Amino acid sequence: MMNHLKTQRLALAATLSCALFLPLAALAAEPEIREATIIVSGEGEAAIAPDMAVLGLSVVREAETAEAALKANSQAMAEVIADLKAKSIADRDIQTSAFSVDPLYRQDKADDDTYEAPVIVGYRVTNGLTLRVRDLSQLGALIDAAVKLGVNQGGGISFTNDNPDAAIAEARKKAVAEAMDKARVLTEAAGVKLGRVIEISENFARPMPQPMYRAAMAKEMADAAPIAAGENEYTVTVNITYAIAQ
Fold first, then answer.
1. Which residues are bridge partners to 102 per DSSP?
2. Based on the domain organization, do 206 and 150 belong to the same domain?
3. Which of 152, 172, 185, 160 is closest to 76 using CA atoms?
4. pLDDT, tens digit, 9 for 90 and up, residues 131-159
5. Which tens digit of pLDDT belongs to each residue from 179-189?
6. d(CA 246, CA 239)
7. Burial class of 127 by CB neighbour count within 10 A (0 to 12, 13 to 18, 19+)
């Protein structure tokens, strides 16, 4: 009898427990109400004159043997580097960017209109420099002097800024101001109030270097090459998510 009563009590307790937890489970299953938001974006730009140029120069020499081509190339490049250093270009601003030794081939035509196997007739040695010029007033004269000392292949000049942080900060401020202004206009037009900031993100890309000079270089250059630096434009896009005040 006692065991039967105990079993009934346990069953009643289990039933009551299930009844208590059912409402909680039902509440947990209800979908969460999503906060009303507004997403706006703004773009800011800041343009500043470049204060540094990155210049590519190459010395190319050909000879019947690899040793002779390498010797001629090394001699010419040594003179170029010595001249650059004499013009106060620091070691940190002179960097070898490419070096190659390539065979030169000749392929003759046979009597039966087929081609004979190619044969090596010489070698070409190419030695490239990447040069950072921090005094832009020197740029034209540096190119002219380098050509006269043996540089016979030119890369491109790209103008950049050593430290563009101030310009980027200005562009950010303009982007945020534009985004905030958009948010105020939209909420006023919709008859709602702007709430707290939920999220801010930005997209920023440095301006692509613009090649300003690219050509095979002639030793006949008598005057310093004219160079126009222009301006670098830094652009920042800001995305802001606001809550709509309820």
1. 124
2. no
3. 152
4. 999 998 888 888 888 888 888 887 678 88
5. 999 999 999 99
6. 22
7. buried
Strand boundaries in 107-216, DSSP class E: 119-133, 153-160, 193-205
| Statement to judge: residues 81 and 113 lie in one domain | yes
* Pairing, β 153-160 against β 193-205: unpaired
Distance CA 104, CA 124 (A): 7
Q: Nearest Cα to 142, choosing from 102, 86, 195? A: 86
- Which range marks the domain in which residue 99 is found? 52-160
Residues belonging to the chain: 246
| Structural domain contains residue 198 | yes
Domains in the chain, number = 2
Look at residue 110 and give its three-state secondary structure: coil
Nearest-CA neighbor of 214 among 159, 158, 161? 158
Separation of alpha carbons 222 and 143, rounded Å: 11
Residues 108, 116: contact at Cβ < 8 Å? yes
Cβ contacts of 87 within 8 Å, gap of 6 or more:
138, 141, 142, 145
Q: Residue 146 has which token pair?
A: 């380098």
| Contacts (Cβ under 8 Å, ≥6 apart) of 90 | none
